[in-house]
């Protein structure tokens, strides 16, 4: 009988190695539940071998990623994976370097460094890589959850990658890290204790979509709570297949859209058309050159069409949430400040099936 590997009898590295041999097709993120540890802890087990721990100067590191040329940026949550190919040009650091901003046609990111606690350069044996490895830079929150990853492509500069890894190599390359559980999500303040009229009046007076989150903070309103309070005037509940509907209609009508997907530490944005749509099991996928989206529809338990006034006219979005009230993905029509919302997008949004 084979020996049962448990935390009490063997190291995490040995358990992880054994698990991979027995489950070669299981992705590392999905293995964490089976092994009872975080993804970052599993990655760290290869430090000193195929993994290099990186120094925590994340902003400076990202500003040098441009030297790698084309890469693939990946940001995800449990229900949705967002992948974009491009170059990390003009990475801006703001708010005392607590935030980062990349606003390019291909790579478009909003970065929150308070949630970046671990970073690794990772090599995975892969025949498709230039040197037989799939190489990446991977960043994790304090609880070991991935917040952003950067994968090299065939167009990437390997020498620049090796130089970057060496420059930001951490002095400590031991194969263990200590993670800290994420703070529990605060419950929403009861409606009766809120200034609901004040909040809704503030919503009516919005001039920019970016002012919505400061408005929620001002009145102490939670994300899905805000949508519920605005129901009828600013929001409508829609079917749980609404994201599929939006992607289908955007592709059919060639309407350019914006797709926002976030982790705690990064929001990644696609702006442009979607074309090749493929269903595979519970996942609905966009498989276009330069942009892939993988959406697990079974995680969607709540979906809303949301309207926000701005100085350029109303802006309409579709927002999808999981059972914990966490945002999975947002969809907008392609737009820029100073320009009204696309009529074609409004028609797509108007056609989303509503719930009674």
Spell out the key features of this protein.
2 domains; 356 residues; Heme iron utilization protein-like fold; 9-stranded antiparallel β-sheet; single chain; disordered N terminus; alpha+beta
Describe the structure.
The structure is a single chain. With 356 residues, the protein is an alpha+beta fold. The protein has two domains: 12-89 and 116-167, Heme iron utilization protein-like fold (3-Layer(aba) Sandwich); 191-277 and 291-350, HemS/ChuS/ChuX like domains (Heme iron utilization protein-like fold, 3-Layer(aba) Sandwich). It contains ten helices and 18 strands. The strands form two sheets. It has a nine-stranded antiparallel beta sheet. Strands 4-5-6-12-11-18-17-16-10 form a nine-stranded antiparallel beta sheet, sandwiched between helices. Strand 7 and strand 8 form a beta hairpin. Helix 6 runs antiparallel to helix 7 and helix 9 runs antiparallel to helix 10. The chain is globular and about 55 Å long. Mean pLDDT is 94; it is low at 1-9.
Task: Summarize this structure briefly.
This protein has 356 residues and is of the alpha+beta class.
Biggest sheet layout: 9 strands, antiparallel
Give me the secondary-structure category: alpha+beta
Strand content: 25-35%
Tally of DSSP β-strands: 18
Mean of the pLDDT scores?
A: 94
Roughly how much helix do the residues carry, as a percent range? 10-25%
What topology, given as strand order, has the largest sheet?
1-7-8-9-2-3-15-14-13
Alpha-carbon distance between the termini? Answer: 58 Å
The CATH topology of the largest domain turns out to be Heme iron utilization protein-like fold
Gross geometry: globular
How many helices does DSSP assign? 10
CATH architecture of the largest domain: 3-Layer(aba) Sandwich
Low-confidence stretches: 1-9
Helix and strand sequence: HHHEHEEEEEEEEHHHHEHEEEEEEEEH
Q: What's the alpha carbon Rg, rounded to whole Å? A: 22 Å
CATH superfamily of the largest domain: HemS/ChuS/ChuX like domains
């Amino acid at each position: 009988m084979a020996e049962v590997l448990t935390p009490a009898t063997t190291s995490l590295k040995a358990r992880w190695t054994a698990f991979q041999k027995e489950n070669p097709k299981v992705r590392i993120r999905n293995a964490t539940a089976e092994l009872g540890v975080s993804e970052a802890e599993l990655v760290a087990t290869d430090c000193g071998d195929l993994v290099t721990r990186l120094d925590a100067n994340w902003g400076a590191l990202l500003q040098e990623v441009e030297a790698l040329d084309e890469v693939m940026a990946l940001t995800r949550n449990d229900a949705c994976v967002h992948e974009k190919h491009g170059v990390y040009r003009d990475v801006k650091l703001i708010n005392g370097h607590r935030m980062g901003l990349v606003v390019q046609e291909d790579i478009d990111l909003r970065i929150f460094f308070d949630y970046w606690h671990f970073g690794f350069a990772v090599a995975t044996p892969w025949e498709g890589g230039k040197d037989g490895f799939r190489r990446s830079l991977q960043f994790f929150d304090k609880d070991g959850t991935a917040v952003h990853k950067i994968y090299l492509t065939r167009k990437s500069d390997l020498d620049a990658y090796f130089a970057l890894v060496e420059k930001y190599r951490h002095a400590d390359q031991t194969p263990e890290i200590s993670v800290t559980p994420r703070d529990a999500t605060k419950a929403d303040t009861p409606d009766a204790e809120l200034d609901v009229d004040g909040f809704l009046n503030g919503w009516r007076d919005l001039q920019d979509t970016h002012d919505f989150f400061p408005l929620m903070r001002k009145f102490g309103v939670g994300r899905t709570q805000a949508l519920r309070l605005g129901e009828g005037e600013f929001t409508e509940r829609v079917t749980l297949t609404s994201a599929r509907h939006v992607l289908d209609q955007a592709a059919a009508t060639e309407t350019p859209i914006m797709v926002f997907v976030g982790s705690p530490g990064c929001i990644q944005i696609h702006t442009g058309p979607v074309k090749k749509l493929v269903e595979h099991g519970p996942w609905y996928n966009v498989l276009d050159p330069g942009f892939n989206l993988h959406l697990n529809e079974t995680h969607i338990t709540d979906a809303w069409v949301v309207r926000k006034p701005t100085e350029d006219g109303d802006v309409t979005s579709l927002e999808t949430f999981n059972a914990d009230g966490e945002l999975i993905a947002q969809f907008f029509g392609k737009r820029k400040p100073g320009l009204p919302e696309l009529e074609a997008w409004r028609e797509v949004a108007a056609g989303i099936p509503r719930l009674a």
